[in-house]
Amino acid sequence: MTSKRATVLAIDIGAESGRTMAVHFDGSALQLEEVHRFPNYALTVNGVLQWDILHLWREVQAGIERSRALTAGPPASLAVDTWGVDFGLLDRDGNLIGNPVCYRDSRTEGMLDAVLKRVPKAEVFAQTGIQFMAINTLYQMMSLVERGSPQLETAARFLTVPDLLNFWLSGAQVCEFSNATTTQMLNPFTRSWAGELLDTLAIPLDLFPEVVQPGTRLGTFDDIPVIAPACHDTGSAVAGVPAQTENFAYISSGTWSLVGLEEAHPFVNGAALAVNATNEGGVYGTFRLLKNVMGLWLLQQCRSTWEQQGRSYTYPELVSLAEAAKPLRSFVDPNDDRFLPPGDHPAHIQAFCQQSGQPLPQSDADIARCVFESLALAYRDVLQELQTLTGRPLEVIHVVGGGSRNRLLNQLTADATGIPVLAGPSEATVIGNALVQLISLGELANLEEGRQLVAGMGEMERFEPKGQEAWHSVKMPAIQ
After folding, report:
1. Domain Carbohydrate kinase FGGY C-terminal: where (predicted)?
2. I need a labelling partner for 63 at 20 to 30 A (CA). Which of 73, 81, 99, 189 fits?
3. Which of 86, 105, 163, 233 is labelled catalytic?
């Protein structure tokens, strides 16, 4: 019989910041307590944009140490999730060969084409089921192959960023399934590495370790069990969705917006390839059929540019400005390549509007409004594509993550899609991470029981569609 009382540590690291949260379970409810918060950043060293992974390792240890003062005894377990696609290489002694390179680094330029010269696009998709994006690990690895990197000659093991932190915590050199799928190097049907693809591209197959499922116990750190959650932060966020129906969509809203459906099997066919859909691994045998949309990164970069120009805004102030701006004037495609690197995004937005023959957003308020409405439009188009693929009706859209607090964007999403939006919880990633730990510990029977707990936390706000007739004629603009 289980205790039905446990505290677990969820360590969640995103592209801008990380935090350690204690999640307390008393047998009937979850309570979250922040233990430690820290920045994350990429640094350019010798012309390469890379992560300060040793800084993250120090902060992970600091959070674990601080948690001991908040709990009676050590936590029942701990688990780490991070962003996807980036990785480190280890030598045969287990030493890291250089910092993990940031997915926004320029080394992947031209690498998608380099891969497709060797393997047809349809074959890459058939072997991986993953959306074609230049940031994917496959193209990062191809850049090492193309330039004959000495790292490949030295390397003995490949680990994604959360797997690297798990190795330092537990000693286990494995890759967790949900994060491994983001690499575009894993076969979703065999749930093992796509050996034929890797061999064709001269990417050494022997670099890649065993793939383990979410909920696997990896080892211990200071006598605390280390459990693999869905190590991809979106995988954990979707696990934390308080779904009460099978016919739901989700938007994990943050720097990126991950828009999708939870499915029992991957959709790997010509129709999925045609819309560039992706089949990322989920928890407990599920797949996340989704598309990546460049999310609130656009607003973050606009805010940074305005601050450099002497105009500082809080995010709530930007929402208020956008609410007062004229609606439905100008749109951008959030996934246009110009928006991927850091830069002057207000100027990029204006240039896109000019090149697509739309009114030029002039004021900061107009630009902020353009960002929010463009995201809502992109969400609508993605969900329509996924509904066509699956034939599934949608009753509700769950918006989770930090972006769920943006009431304007939530309402615009309901209006654009014509589907009610349930916003919250904002801490879905931490909650999903904790639910997998609690299931692994035997404190919860299954994910359904966990989602019932999340639904009872009372954080959700409902947004009903209104004014959607104005969106019927709106289409994603294209560059002329």
Report:
1. 249-440
2. 99
3. 233
